[in-house]
Design a protein that fits this description.
Elements: H1 6-22, H2 27-56
Helix pairs in contact: 1-2
């Protein structure tokens, strides 16, 4: 999952949600899709959190302070 960019993960999440909303899948497949969707949503949130930290680290002169988010 770590190799997915925000845009890739979001696109897959949107597809997953659409498939779940259709409601015509077997229960076991719906559960797997739900789990994948939850993982994708968490991945997107982590990427957004990192981006937020980077923006907050911008200095007044427009430079960026060193940031270690790992």
């Amino acid at each position: 999952m770590d190799e997915l960019s925000f845009e890739q993960a979001l696109a897959e999440l949107e597809t997953t949600v659409a498939r779940l909303e259709e409601g015509n899948l077997p229960l076991d497949e719906m559960v797997k899709l739900y789990q994948r969707g939850k993982s994708l949503a968490e991945h997107c949130q982590q990427l957004l959190d990192r981006a937020t930290l980077q923006v907050r680290q911008l200095t007044a002169d427009g430079g960026e302070a060193a940031l270690d988010v790992d």
